[in-house]
Amino acid sequence: MIHFNQLPKFQKEYKKLLRRFPSLRSDLVDLEDIIISLPTGNGKNFTILHSSEDLKIVKTRMVCKTLRERSIRLIYAYHSNLITFVYIEIYYKGDKESEDRERITEYIKDVKENTGE
After folding, report:
1. How far is residue 70 CA from its own chain's centroid?
2. If you average pLDDT over every residue of the chain, what do you get?
3. For residues 12 and 22, is the Cβ–Cβ distance under 8 A?
4. Taking the CB of the first residue and of the last residue of the chain, which one, N or C, has fewer CB atoms within 10 A?
5. 62, 74 in Cβ contact below 8 A?
6. Could you report the per-residue pLDDT of 1-25, keeping only the tens digit for each?
7. Where do the DSSP E strands lie in the chain?
8. What CA–CA distances, in Å, run from 81 to 4, 54, 60, 63, 64?
9. H helical segments located in 21-90
10. Contact 70/58 with Cβ under 8 angstroms?
């Protein structure tokens, strides 16, 4: 069974962006369809930021129908051993230049502490 989870900070960012970009809800569903079949994506719209045996952190350029472009960035974790995806961060490229590396590092650290890696 495939699971999609969201960090609390992600939920806050998502709700804020949803007010500006109404298509975001369906855009996220479309993205989920893609990453279910290709967990780390395929092509230039996906970049692996971290890779270990059971954990991949991926940054994707998500299509936003409201914007008619790929200006929404989404960072997610793929836990291959659990078949689970965790949304870490979402942002509009016009508001923010790049991902929150500190949040990603903190997430990886928390995963290692909780799994004993």
Report:
1. 14
2. 93
3. no
4. N
5. yes
6. 789 999 999 999 999 999 999 999 9
7. 3-6, 46-51, 55-64, 69-79, 84-92
8. 14, 6, 21, 28, 30
9. 24-37
10. no
